[in-house]
Specification:
The complex is a heterodimer of chains A (about 230) and B (about 375). Chain A has about 230 residues and is an alpha/beta fold. Chain A has one domain: 3-Layer(aba) Sandwich (Rossmann fold), CATH 3.40.50. Chain A is built from six helices and ten strands, in the order E-E-E-H-E-E-H-E-H-H-H-E-H-E-E-E. Chain A has a six-stranded mixed β-sheet. Chain A has a four-stranded antiparallel β-sheet with strand order 2-1-4-5. Chain B has two domains: about 170 residues, no CATH class; about 160 residues, no CATH class. Helix content of chain B is about 50%, strand content about 20%. Chain B is built from twelve helices and eleven strands. In chain B, a hairpin with a 6-residue loop joins strand 3 and strand 4. The longest helix of chain B has about 35 residues. Chain B is elongated, with a radius of gyration of 28 Å. Classes of the chains: A alpha/beta (about 230), B alpha+beta (about 375). Chains A and B meet through helix 1, helix 2 and helix 3 of A and helix 1 and helix 9 of B.
Protein backbone atom coordinates (compact mmCIF):
# COMPACT_ATOMS: atom_id res chain seq x y z
CA UNK A 1 0.00 0.00 0.00
CA UNK A 2 1.26 3.48 -0.84
CA UNK A 3 1.76 5.96 1.94
CA UNK A 4 0.59 8.78 -0.34
CA UNK A 5 -1.27 8.73 -3.63
CA UNK A 6 -2.09 11.94 -5.43
CA UNK A 7 -4.17 11.37 -8.54
CA UNK A 8 -4.72 14.16 -11.02
CA UNK A 9 -4.84 16.72 -8.25
CA UNK A 10 -5.58 20.32 -9.08
CA UNK A 11 -5.63 23.30 -6.77
CA UNK A 12 -7.00 26.45 -8.32
CA UNK A 13 -7.16 29.88 -6.73
CA UNK A 14 -9.34 32.62 -8.03
CA UNK A 15 -7.57 35.94 -8.51
CA UNK A 16 -9.82 38.65 -9.89
CA UNK A 17 -11.28 37.24 -13.09
CA UNK A 18 -8.57 34.64 -13.47
CA UNK A 19 -8.13 31.11 -12.20
CA UNK A 20 -4.59 30.36 -11.16
CA UNK A 21 -3.59 26.72 -10.88
CA UNK A 22 -1.15 26.31 -8.00
CA UNK A 23 -1.17 22.58 -8.64
CA UNK A 24 -2.03 21.29 -12.08
CA UNK A 25 -3.03 17.65 -12.62
CA UNK A 26 -0.42 16.38 -10.18
CA UNK A 27 -0.06 12.66 -9.79
CA UNK A 28 2.39 11.22 -7.29
CA UNK A 29 2.78 7.90 -5.55
CA UNK A 30 4.98 7.63 -2.48
CA UNK A 31 5.64 4.13 -1.21
CA UNK A 32 5.92 3.04 2.40
CA UNK A 33 9.26 4.12 3.90
CA UNK A 34 10.13 5.97 0.68
CA UNK A 35 11.71 9.39 0.92
CA UNK A 36 10.80 11.75 -1.90
CA UNK A 37 12.54 15.08 -2.37
CA UNK A 38 10.24 17.63 -3.94
CA UNK A 39 12.28 20.37 -5.57
CA UNK A 40 11.34 23.43 -7.49
CA UNK A 41 11.66 27.18 -7.57
CA UNK A 42 9.68 29.52 -5.38
CA UNK A 43 6.02 29.66 -6.34
CA UNK A 44 6.18 26.35 -8.18
CA UNK A 45 3.54 24.71 -5.99
CA UNK A 46 5.75 22.70 -3.59
CA UNK A 47 4.08 24.03 -0.48
CA UNK A 48 0.61 23.62 -1.99
CA UNK A 49 1.34 19.98 -2.75
CA UNK A 50 2.69 19.42 0.75
CA UNK A 51 -0.36 21.13 2.29
CA UNK A 52 -2.77 19.01 0.26
CA UNK A 53 -0.87 15.82 1.09
CA UNK A 54 -1.01 16.71 4.79
CA UNK A 55 -4.69 17.61 4.87
CA UNK A 56 -4.06 21.30 5.42
CA UNK A 57 -5.70 22.20 2.12
CA UNK A 58 -8.39 20.52 0.07
CA UNK A 59 -7.77 19.95 -3.64
CA UNK A 60 -10.04 21.59 -6.18
CA UNK A 61 -10.21 18.25 -7.98
CA UNK A 62 -8.48 14.91 -7.99
CA UNK A 63 -8.01 12.48 -5.18
CA UNK A 64 -5.63 12.36 -2.24
CA UNK A 65 -5.17 9.04 -0.49
CA UNK A 66 -3.01 8.85 2.62
CA UNK A 67 -2.42 5.49 4.29
CA UNK A 68 -5.50 4.15 2.54
CA UNK A 69 -7.77 7.06 3.51
CA UNK A 70 -9.17 9.20 0.72
CA UNK A 71 -9.08 12.59 2.39
CA UNK A 72 -10.13 14.62 -0.67
CA UNK A 73 -13.65 15.13 0.60
CA UNK A 74 -12.97 15.29 4.33
CA UNK A 75 -14.58 18.11 6.28
CA UNK A 76 -12.57 20.35 8.61
CA UNK A 77 -13.21 18.30 11.73
CA UNK A 78 -12.24 15.05 10.04
CA UNK A 79 -9.15 16.64 8.52
CA UNK A 80 -8.08 17.88 11.97
CA UNK A 81 -8.38 14.37 13.38
CA UNK A 82 -6.58 12.98 10.34
CA UNK A 83 -3.64 15.36 10.79
CA UNK A 84 -3.39 14.45 14.44
CA UNK A 85 -3.08 10.75 13.75
CA UNK A 86 -1.80 10.06 10.24
CA UNK A 87 0.76 12.71 9.30
CA UNK A 88 3.67 14.53 10.90
CA UNK A 89 4.84 17.98 9.91
CA UNK A 90 8.17 19.76 10.18
CA UNK A 91 7.70 23.38 9.30
CA UNK A 92 10.21 25.65 7.63
CA UNK A 93 10.46 27.97 10.60
CA UNK A 94 10.39 25.05 13.07
CA UNK A 95 7.56 26.69 15.01
CA UNK A 96 8.03 25.14 18.41
CA UNK A 97 5.79 26.40 21.20
CA UNK A 98 8.13 28.88 22.87
CA UNK A 99 6.99 28.38 26.46
CA UNK A 100 7.11 24.58 26.38
CA UNK A 101 10.21 22.47 26.98
CA UNK A 102 11.56 20.18 24.29
CA UNK A 103 9.74 17.23 25.89
CA UNK A 104 6.48 19.17 26.23
CA UNK A 105 6.71 20.23 22.58
CA UNK A 106 6.53 16.56 21.70
CA UNK A 107 3.82 15.82 24.23
CA UNK A 108 1.65 18.65 22.91
CA UNK A 109 0.78 16.49 19.89
CA UNK A 110 -0.55 13.75 22.15
CA UNK A 111 -2.32 16.31 24.32
CA UNK A 112 -4.01 18.01 21.37
CA UNK A 113 -5.24 14.71 20.01
CA UNK A 114 -6.33 13.32 23.37
CA UNK A 115 -3.87 10.41 23.44
CA UNK A 116 -3.13 8.66 26.77
CA UNK A 117 -0.43 10.41 28.83
CA UNK A 118 1.64 7.43 29.97
CA UNK A 119 2.55 5.95 26.59
CA UNK A 120 2.98 9.47 25.17
CA UNK A 121 5.57 10.33 27.82
CA UNK A 122 7.50 7.15 27.17
CA UNK A 123 7.46 7.79 23.44
CA UNK A 124 8.57 11.41 23.86
CA UNK A 125 11.48 10.36 26.08
CA UNK A 126 12.46 7.64 23.66
CA UNK A 127 12.33 9.99 20.67
CA UNK A 128 14.36 12.66 22.42
CA UNK A 129 16.95 10.09 23.38
CA UNK A 130 17.19 8.83 19.81
CA UNK A 131 17.47 12.36 18.51
CA UNK A 132 20.36 13.03 20.88
CA UNK A 133 18.32 15.38 23.03
CA UNK A 134 17.95 13.24 26.13
CA UNK A 135 19.83 15.79 28.21
CA UNK A 136 17.97 18.75 26.73
CA UNK A 137 14.42 17.60 27.27
CA UNK A 138 13.75 20.21 29.95
CA UNK A 139 15.12 23.10 27.93
CA UNK A 140 12.90 25.71 26.37
CA UNK A 141 13.30 26.34 22.62
CA UNK A 142 15.26 29.56 23.16
CA UNK A 143 17.79 27.56 25.19
CA UNK A 144 18.43 25.24 22.24
CA UNK A 145 20.60 25.69 19.15
CA UNK A 146 19.05 25.88 15.68
CA UNK A 147 19.96 22.25 14.99
CA UNK A 148 18.55 21.11 18.31
CA UNK A 149 15.32 22.94 17.66
CA UNK A 150 15.07 21.28 14.27
CA UNK A 151 15.58 17.90 15.93
CA UNK A 152 12.81 18.64 18.41
CA UNK A 153 10.57 19.53 15.47
CA UNK A 154 11.44 16.18 13.84
CA UNK A 155 10.58 14.44 17.10
CA UNK A 156 7.24 16.26 17.20
CA UNK A 157 6.51 15.16 13.63
CA UNK A 158 7.14 11.54 14.57
CA UNK A 159 5.37 11.69 17.90
CA UNK A 160 2.00 10.42 16.68
CA UNK A 161 3.60 7.50 14.82
CA UNK A 162 2.51 8.77 11.40
CA UNK A 163 2.69 6.80 8.19
CA UNK A 164 3.71 9.94 6.33
CA UNK A 165 6.04 12.74 7.43
CA UNK A 166 6.09 16.03 5.57
CA UNK A 167 9.11 18.31 5.77
CA UNK A 168 8.95 21.88 4.51
CA UNK A 169 12.44 23.19 3.76
CA UNK A 170 13.91 21.56 6.87
CA UNK A 171 17.43 22.80 6.17
CA UNK A 172 16.76 26.29 4.88
CA UNK A 173 17.82 27.98 8.12
CA UNK A 174 20.89 25.78 8.64
CA UNK A 175 24.43 25.87 7.27
CA UNK A 176 25.52 23.06 4.95
CA UNK A 177 27.10 20.93 7.67
CA UNK A 178 24.15 21.24 10.00
CA UNK A 179 21.76 20.76 7.07
CA UNK A 180 23.45 17.50 6.16
CA UNK A 181 23.32 16.35 9.77
CA UNK A 182 19.61 17.08 9.91
CA UNK A 183 18.95 15.32 6.60
CA UNK A 184 20.95 12.31 7.78
CA UNK A 185 18.88 12.27 10.94
CA UNK A 186 15.63 12.55 8.97
CA UNK A 187 16.66 9.68 6.74
CA UNK A 188 17.71 7.52 9.69
CA UNK A 189 14.57 8.23 11.70
CA UNK A 190 12.06 7.70 8.91
CA UNK A 191 13.79 4.63 7.55
CA UNK A 192 14.06 3.05 11.00
CA UNK A 193 10.36 3.54 11.53
CA UNK A 194 9.24 2.63 8.05
CA UNK A 195 7.71 6.08 7.62
CA UNK A 196 7.30 7.63 4.20
CA UNK A 197 8.52 11.19 3.80
CA UNK A 198 8.12 14.05 1.39
CA UNK A 199 10.85 16.64 1.80
CA UNK A 200 10.30 19.96 0.12
CA UNK A 201 13.59 21.67 -0.59
CA UNK A 202 15.12 24.11 -3.00
CA UNK A 203 18.59 23.01 -1.89
CA UNK A 204 19.74 20.47 -4.49
CA UNK A 205 22.69 19.52 -2.26
CA UNK A 206 20.24 17.79 0.04
CA UNK A 207 18.31 15.77 -2.53
CA UNK A 208 20.71 12.82 -2.46
CA UNK A 209 19.37 11.93 0.97
CA UNK A 210 16.08 11.07 -0.72
CA UNK A 211 15.25 7.85 -2.51
CA UNK A 212 13.70 9.79 -5.31
CA UNK A 213 13.60 13.37 -6.53
CA UNK A 214 10.47 14.91 -8.01
CA UNK A 215 10.59 18.29 -9.65
CA UNK A 216 7.72 20.69 -9.76
CA UNK A 217 7.40 23.71 -11.98
CA UNK A 218 4.35 25.94 -12.33
CA UNK A 219 2.27 23.44 -10.43
CA UNK A 220 3.21 20.52 -12.64
CA UNK A 221 5.20 17.54 -11.50
CA UNK A 222 7.84 17.13 -14.11
CA UNK A 223 10.32 14.34 -13.69
CA UNK A 224 11.63 11.98 -11.14
CA UNK A 225 14.94 10.31 -10.47
CA UNK A 226 17.02 8.65 -7.76
CA UNK B 1 -5.78 22.89 28.37
CA UNK B 2 -2.46 22.15 30.07
CA UNK B 3 -0.63 24.19 27.47
CA UNK B 4 -2.78 27.19 28.44
CA UNK B 5 -1.97 26.73 32.13
CA UNK B 6 1.72 26.32 31.38
CA UNK B 7 1.73 29.59 29.48
CA UNK B 8 0.12 31.31 32.46
CA UNK B 9 2.68 29.85 34.83
CA UNK B 10 5.74 30.42 32.67
CA UNK B 11 4.81 33.75 31.16
CA UNK B 12 2.75 35.49 33.84
CA UNK B 13 4.02 38.86 32.66
CA UNK B 14 2.11 38.37 29.44
CA UNK B 15 -1.14 38.48 31.37
CA UNK B 16 -0.12 41.26 33.74
CA UNK B 17 -1.90 44.03 31.85
CA UNK B 18 -5.25 42.24 31.74
CA UNK B 19 -4.78 40.89 35.25
CA UNK B 20 -3.91 44.35 36.59
CA UNK B 21 -6.89 45.98 34.90
CA UNK B 22 -9.31 43.32 36.14
CA UNK B 23 -7.80 43.55 39.65
CA UNK B 24 -8.56 47.27 39.75
CA UNK B 25 -12.08 46.56 38.53
CA UNK B 26 -12.53 43.85 41.17
CA UNK B 27 -11.37 46.34 43.81
CA UNK B 28 -13.95 48.80 42.51
CA UNK B 29 -16.67 46.14 42.42
CA UNK B 30 -15.98 45.02 45.98
CA UNK B 31 -16.00 48.59 47.27
CA UNK B 32 -19.12 49.51 45.35
CA UNK B 33 -20.79 46.36 46.64
CA UNK B 34 -19.68 47.08 50.20
CA UNK B 35 -21.01 50.63 49.94
CA UNK B 36 -24.32 49.46 48.51
CA UNK B 37 -24.68 46.82 51.23
CA UNK B 38 -23.60 49.28 53.91
CA UNK B 39 -26.12 51.86 52.78
CA UNK B 40 -28.90 49.31 52.34
CA UNK B 41 -28.38 47.50 55.63
CA UNK B 42 -27.72 50.72 57.51
CA UNK B 43 -30.97 52.17 56.23
CA UNK B 44 -33.25 49.19 56.67
CA UNK B 45 -32.08 47.43 59.85
CA UNK B 46 -34.89 48.90 61.96
CA UNK B 47 -37.41 47.19 59.67
CA UNK B 48 -35.64 43.90 59.09
CA UNK B 49 -34.88 43.30 62.79
CA UNK B 50 -38.62 43.02 63.54
CA UNK B 51 -38.76 39.71 61.73
CA UNK B 52 -42.24 40.73 60.57
CA UNK B 53 -44.26 39.70 57.54
CA UNK B 54 -46.43 42.78 57.11
CA UNK B 55 -46.33 46.45 58.15
CA UNK B 56 -49.61 48.35 58.40
CA UNK B 57 -49.51 52.08 57.58
CA UNK B 58 -52.29 54.66 57.79
CA UNK B 59 -53.79 55.14 54.34
CA UNK B 60 -52.70 58.78 54.08
CA UNK B 61 -49.03 57.98 54.89
CA UNK B 62 -47.92 57.14 51.34
CA UNK B 63 -45.89 54.27 52.81
CA UNK B 64 -43.84 56.60 55.03
CA UNK B 65 -43.15 55.78 58.69
CA UNK B 66 -42.91 59.45 59.57
CA UNK B 67 -46.24 60.37 57.93
CA UNK B 68 -48.09 57.34 59.25
CA UNK B 69 -50.14 57.26 62.42
CA UNK B 70 -52.37 54.36 63.51
CA UNK B 71 -54.55 54.00 66.58
CA UNK B 72 -53.82 51.13 68.93
CA UNK B 73 -57.41 49.93 68.72
CA UNK B 74 -56.79 48.97 65.09
CA UNK B 75 -54.54 46.22 66.40
CA UNK B 76 -57.56 44.21 67.48
CA UNK B 77 -59.09 44.48 63.99
CA UNK B 78 -55.85 43.37 62.38
CA UNK B 79 -55.49 40.55 64.88
CA UNK B 80 -58.94 39.28 63.85
CA UNK B 81 -57.77 38.65 60.26
CA UNK B 82 -57.29 35.03 59.40
CA UNK B 83 -53.63 34.02 59.28
CA UNK B 84 -52.42 36.78 61.60
CA UNK B 85 -50.25 35.41 64.40
CA UNK B 86 -49.41 38.59 66.30
CA UNK B 87 -49.76 42.36 66.04
CA UNK B 88 -47.69 44.99 67.80
CA UNK B 89 -47.09 48.72 67.49
CA UNK B 90 -44.01 50.58 66.30
CA UNK B 91 -43.19 54.29 66.36
CA UNK B 92 -40.12 56.07 65.07
CA UNK B 93 -38.67 59.54 65.62
CA UNK B 94 -35.46 60.91 64.11
CA UNK B 95 -33.58 63.15 66.51
CA UNK B 96 -30.11 64.25 67.56
CA UNK B 97 -28.54 62.33 70.44
CA UNK B 98 -26.10 63.82 72.93
CA UNK B 99 -23.58 61.22 74.13
CA UNK B 100 -21.78 61.94 77.41
CA UNK B 101 -18.24 63.13 76.77
CA UNK B 102 -18.79 63.61 73.04
CA UNK B 103 -18.96 67.07 71.49
CA UNK B 104 -20.72 65.97 68.34
CA UNK B 105 -24.43 65.27 68.39
CA UNK B 106 -25.08 61.83 66.91
CA UNK B 107 -28.03 61.02 64.65
CA UNK B 108 -30.49 58.67 66.25
CA UNK B 109 -33.73 56.90 65.39
CA UNK B 110 -35.76 56.55 68.59
CA UNK B 111 -37.99 53.54 68.07
CA UNK B 112 -40.85 52.63 70.37
CA UNK B 113 -41.81 48.95 70.13
CA UNK B 114 -44.04 46.45 71.87
CA UNK B 115 -42.60 43.10 70.87
CA UNK B 116 -39.10 41.69 70.77
CA UNK B 117 -38.19 39.45 67.85
CA UNK B 118 -35.06 37.60 66.81
CA UNK B 119 -32.06 39.65 67.95
CA UNK B 120 -34.32 42.36 69.35
CA UNK B 121 -35.01 41.76 73.05
CA UNK B 122 -38.34 42.50 74.69
CA UNK B 123 -38.75 46.26 75.38
CA UNK B 124 -36.75 47.69 78.28
CA UNK B 125 -38.20 49.60 81.24
CA UNK B 126 -39.47 53.18 80.78
CA UNK B 127 -36.57 55.60 80.43
CA UNK B 128 -34.21 52.85 79.32
CA UNK B 129 -33.02 51.92 75.83
CA UNK B 130 -31.28 49.30 73.82
CA UNK B 131 -28.99 51.12 71.40
CA UNK B 132 -27.50 49.97 68.15
CA UNK B 133 -23.77 49.28 68.27
CA UNK B 134 -23.33 52.18 65.88
CA UNK B 135 -23.90 54.41 68.91
CA UNK B 136 -21.16 52.51 70.72
CA UNK B 137 -18.82 53.27 67.79
CA UNK B 138 -19.72 56.93 68.30
CA UNK B 139 -18.65 56.83 71.96
CA UNK B 140 -21.64 55.66 74.00
CA UNK B 141 -21.44 52.91 76.62
CA UNK B 142 -23.83 50.79 78.66
CA UNK B 143 -25.00 52.83 81.69
CA UNK B 144 -24.57 56.12 79.84
CA UNK B 145 -27.53 58.46 79.85
CA UNK B 146 -27.91 59.96 76.39
CA UNK B 147 -29.92 63.13 75.86
CA UNK B 148 -32.38 62.91 73.00
CA UNK B 149 -33.62 65.80 70.90
CA UNK B 150 -33.37 69.54 71.40
CA UNK B 151 -35.20 69.19 74.71
CA UNK B 152 -32.75 66.55 75.87
CA UNK B 153 -34.99 63.72 77.02
CA UNK B 154 -32.71 61.40 79.04
CA UNK B 155 -32.48 57.72 78.13
CA UNK B 156 -30.27 55.22 79.88
CA UNK B 157 -28.54 52.69 77.64
CA UNK B 158 -28.95 49.21 79.11
CA UNK B 159 -27.74 47.04 76.23
CA UNK B 160 -26.85 46.74 72.55
CA UNK B 161 -28.53 45.53 69.43
CA UNK B 162 -26.97 45.17 65.99
CA UNK B 163 -28.11 45.96 62.47
CA UNK B 164 -31.09 47.95 63.73
CA UNK B 165 -30.54 51.41 62.22
CA UNK B 166 -32.90 53.50 60.16
CA UNK B 167 -31.62 55.69 57.33
CA UNK B 168 -28.08 55.28 58.74
CA UNK B 169 -29.19 56.75 62.07
CA UNK B 170 -28.45 54.75 65.18
CA UNK B 171 -31.45 52.75 66.35
CA UNK B 172 -32.40 53.49 69.99
CA UNK B 173 -35.08 51.05 71.06
CA UNK B 174 -37.48 52.03 73.86
CA UNK B 175 -40.87 50.93 75.14
CA UNK B 176 -43.91 52.78 73.67
CA UNK B 177 -44.61 55.34 76.44
CA UNK B 178 -40.98 56.45 76.44
CA UNK B 179 -41.10 56.87 72.67
CA UNK B 180 -44.31 58.93 72.91
CA UNK B 181 -42.65 61.13 75.57
CA UNK B 182 -39.61 61.64 73.32
CA UNK B 183 -41.82 62.41 70.32
CA UNK B 184 -44.27 64.73 72.10
CA UNK B 185 -41.53 66.58 73.96
CA UNK B 186 -39.31 67.22 70.98
CA UNK B 187 -41.87 67.24 68.18
CA UNK B 188 -44.92 69.08 69.53
CA UNK B 189 -45.91 69.75 65.92
CA UNK B 190 -46.54 66.01 65.42
CA UNK B 191 -47.90 64.69 68.69
CA UNK B 192 -48.94 61.08 69.18
CA UNK B 193 -51.78 59.98 71.42
CA UNK B 194 -51.48 57.58 74.32
CA UNK B 195 -52.41 54.52 72.29
CA UNK B 196 -51.07 55.62 68.93
CA UNK B 197 -48.19 54.18 66.90
CA UNK B 198 -46.89 54.93 63.44
CA UNK B 199 -47.27 51.43 62.08
CA UNK B 200 -48.48 48.04 63.17
CA UNK B 201 -46.06 45.14 62.88
CA UNK B 202 -47.75 41.90 61.85
CA UNK B 203 -46.42 38.39 62.12
CA UNK B 204 -48.32 35.80 60.09
CA UNK B 205 -48.98 32.19 60.93
CA UNK B 206 -46.83 29.63 59.18
CA UNK B 207 -48.17 29.01 55.68
CA UNK B 208 -50.28 32.18 55.55
CA UNK B 209 -49.96 34.18 52.33
CA UNK B 210 -48.78 37.76 52.82
CA UNK B 211 -50.72 39.04 49.81
CA UNK B 212 -53.99 37.59 51.11
CA UNK B 213 -53.37 38.87 54.63
CA UNK B 214 -52.55 42.36 53.32
CA UNK B 215 -55.75 42.48 51.33
CA UNK B 216 -57.83 41.22 54.27
CA UNK B 217 -56.19 43.61 56.76
CA UNK B 218 -56.83 46.66 54.59
CA UNK B 219 -60.41 45.53 53.97
CA UNK B 220 -61.11 44.99 57.65
CA UNK B 221 -59.61 48.31 58.79
CA UNK B 222 -60.57 50.35 55.68
CA UNK B 223 -58.12 53.03 56.86
CA UNK B 224 -54.78 51.34 56.30
CA UNK B 225 -52.35 50.42 53.57
CA UNK B 226 -50.29 47.34 54.34
CA UNK B 227 -46.99 46.30 52.83
CA UNK B 228 -44.82 43.25 53.00
CA UNK B 229 -41.59 43.56 54.94
CA UNK B 230 -39.61 43.72 51.70
CA UNK B 231 -41.86 46.42 50.23
CA UNK B 232 -41.60 48.35 53.49
CA UNK B 233 -37.81 48.34 53.16
CA UNK B 234 -38.02 49.58 49.60
CA UNK B 235 -40.53 52.25 50.62
CA UNK B 236 -37.78 53.93 52.66
CA UNK B 237 -37.04 57.20 50.86
CA UNK B 238 -34.19 56.81 48.39
CA UNK B 239 -33.52 53.10 48.97
CA UNK B 240 -34.87 51.91 45.63
CA UNK B 241 -33.08 54.66 43.71
CA UNK B 242 -29.90 54.02 45.64
CA UNK B 243 -30.04 50.29 44.85
CA UNK B 244 -30.75 50.90 41.19
CA UNK B 245 -27.91 53.40 40.89
CA UNK B 246 -25.35 51.14 42.53
CA UNK B 247 -26.59 48.07 40.68
CA UNK B 248 -26.24 49.93 37.39
CA UNK B 249 -22.70 51.02 38.22
CA UNK B 250 -21.82 47.46 39.29
CA UNK B 251 -23.36 46.07 36.09
CA UNK B 252 -21.44 48.54 33.93
CA UNK B 253 -18.22 47.68 35.77
CA UNK B 254 -18.80 43.97 35.16
CA UNK B 255 -19.39 44.76 31.50
CA UNK B 256 -16.05 46.60 31.44
CA UNK B 257 -14.41 43.49 32.95
CA UNK B 258 -15.77 41.45 30.03
CA UNK B 259 -14.65 44.13 27.59
CA UNK B 260 -11.11 44.25 29.00
CA UNK B 261 -10.80 40.46 28.88
CA UNK B 262 -12.32 40.29 25.39
CA UNK B 263 -9.99 42.95 24.01
CA UNK B 264 -6.95 41.46 25.70
CA UNK B 265 -7.55 37.94 24.42
CA UNK B 266 -8.56 39.20 20.98
CA UNK B 267 -5.16 40.90 20.75
CA UNK B 268 -3.43 37.86 22.18
CA UNK B 269 -5.17 35.66 19.61
CA UNK B 270 -3.92 37.91 16.82
CA UNK B 271 -0.42 37.61 18.24
CA UNK B 272 -0.76 33.85 18.56
CA UNK B 273 -2.18 33.29 15.07
CA UNK B 274 1.04 31.56 13.96
CA UNK B 275 1.16 29.33 17.02
CA UNK B 276 -2.52 28.40 16.67
CA UNK B 277 -1.97 27.55 13.00
CA UNK B 278 0.84 25.17 13.98
CA UNK B 279 -1.24 23.58 16.71
CA UNK B 280 -4.14 23.17 14.29
CA UNK B 281 -1.77 21.64 11.77
CA UNK B 282 -0.65 19.02 14.29
CA UNK B 283 -4.23 18.12 15.18
CA UNK B 284 -5.56 20.65 17.68
CA UNK B 285 -9.27 21.27 17.29
CA UNK B 286 -10.89 24.69 17.49
CA UNK B 287 -12.61 23.54 20.66
CA UNK B 288 -9.30 22.72 22.34
CA UNK B 289 -7.81 26.09 21.43
CA UNK B 290 -10.89 28.07 22.49
CA UNK B 291 -11.04 26.10 25.74
CA UNK B 292 -7.43 27.12 26.38
CA UNK B 293 -8.33 30.80 25.95
CA UNK B 294 -11.35 30.47 28.22
CA UNK B 295 -9.29 28.69 30.88
CA UNK B 296 -6.74 31.50 30.75
CA UNK B 297 -9.50 34.12 31.00
CA UNK B 298 -10.98 32.34 34.02
CA UNK B 299 -7.60 32.00 35.74
CA UNK B 300 -6.83 35.68 35.10
CA UNK B 301 -10.24 36.64 36.50
CA UNK B 302 -9.85 34.40 39.53
CA UNK B 303 -6.32 35.66 40.20
CA UNK B 304 -7.54 39.24 39.86
CA UNK B 305 -10.33 38.47 42.32
CA UNK B 306 -7.90 37.08 44.89
CA UNK B 307 -5.47 39.99 44.58
CA UNK B 308 -8.34 42.50 44.41
CA UNK B 309 -9.87 40.90 47.50
CA UNK B 310 -6.64 41.18 49.47
CA UNK B 311 -6.20 44.80 48.38
CA UNK B 312 -9.81 45.56 49.33
CA UNK B 313 -9.30 44.03 52.76
CA UNK B 314 -6.14 46.11 53.24
CA UNK B 315 -7.85 49.31 52.15
CA UNK B 316 -10.94 48.57 54.24
CA UNK B 317 -8.81 48.89 57.37
CA UNK B 318 -8.29 52.55 56.51
CA UNK B 319 -11.95 53.40 56.02
CA UNK B 320 -13.31 55.57 58.85
CA UNK B 321 -16.33 54.09 60.75
CA UNK B 322 -18.50 56.94 59.52
CA UNK B 323 -18.42 55.48 55.99
CA UNK B 324 -21.21 52.91 55.76
CA UNK B 325 -19.49 49.92 54.20
CA UNK B 326 -20.38 46.29 54.81
CA UNK B 327 -18.17 43.55 53.38
CA UNK B 328 -20.43 40.53 52.96
CA UNK B 329 -19.40 37.05 51.84
CA UNK B 330 -22.46 36.90 49.59
CA UNK B 331 -21.36 40.08 47.82
CA UNK B 332 -17.81 38.74 47.39
CA UNK B 333 -19.26 35.56 45.87
CA UNK B 334 -21.44 37.63 43.56
CA UNK B 335 -18.38 39.60 42.40
CA UNK B 336 -16.37 36.38 41.95
CA UNK B 337 -19.08 34.75 39.84
CA UNK B 338 -19.76 37.98 37.97
CA UNK B 339 -16.11 38.48 37.11
CA UNK B 340 -15.53 34.84 36.15
CA UNK B 341 -18.65 34.68 33.98
CA UNK B 342 -17.96 37.97 32.19
CA UNK B 343 -14.32 36.94 31.70
CA UNK B 344 -15.51 33.63 30.22
CA UNK B 345 -17.78 35.46 27.83
CA UNK B 346 -14.92 37.88 27.08
CA UNK B 347 -12.63 34.95 26.32
CA UNK B 348 -15.24 33.41 24.04
CA UNK B 349 -15.16 36.55 21.89
CA UNK B 350 -11.92 35.15 20.41
CA UNK B 351 -13.82 32.09 19.18
CA UNK B 352 -14.52 33.48 15.72
CA UNK B 353 -10.94 34.60 15.26
CA UNK B 354 -9.54 31.23 16.31
CA UNK B 355 -11.91 29.33 14.03
CA UNK B 356 -10.84 31.57 11.14
CA UNK B 357 -7.14 30.72 11.53
CA UNK B 358 -6.12 28.55 8.59
CA UNK B 359 -3.86 25.66 9.60
CA UNK B 360 -2.32 25.83 6.13
CA UNK B 361 -0.74 29.16 7.12
CA UNK B 362 1.62 27.14 9.37
CA UNK B 363 3.33 25.81 6.31
CA UNK B 364 3.04 28.76 3.94
Amino acid sequence: MSALQLSDVRKVYRSGDQDIAALDHATLDVGDDEIVALVGPSGSGKTTLLSIAGGLLRPTSGSVVVAGHDISGYEDKKLTAFRGSEVGFVFQSVNLVPFLTARENLLVVAEMTGKPKGPARSRADQLLEELGLGGRSRNLPDQLSGGERQRVAIGRALMNEPGLALFDEPTSALDTEMGEQVMTLIRTEVKERGVAAVVVTHDTRMTHFADRKVEITDGRLAASGG
Amino acid sequence: MRIAIRELVRRPGRFAVAGGAVTVLVLLLLFLGALLDGLFLGSSGAIRINDADVFVFSDDARDSFLRSKVDGELAADVQSVEGVESVSGLGLTLLGVGIPGEDEIANGAIIGYERGAGDLPQPPLPGQAYADRRLQDLGAGVGDVVLVGPLEVPLEIVGWVTDSNYLLQAGIWVEPTTWRRVQNTNRPDAPVGDDQFQVLVVELEAGAQAATAISDIDTVTSTTVSLTSNDTVFAIPGIREQNRTFSTVIGVTLFVVGLVVALFFALLTLERAGLYAVLKAVGASNRTLVAGVVVQAIVVAFGAFVIGGVLTWGLSLMIPPSVPVEFLASRALFVLFGVVITATVGGLVSLRRIVAIDPASAIG
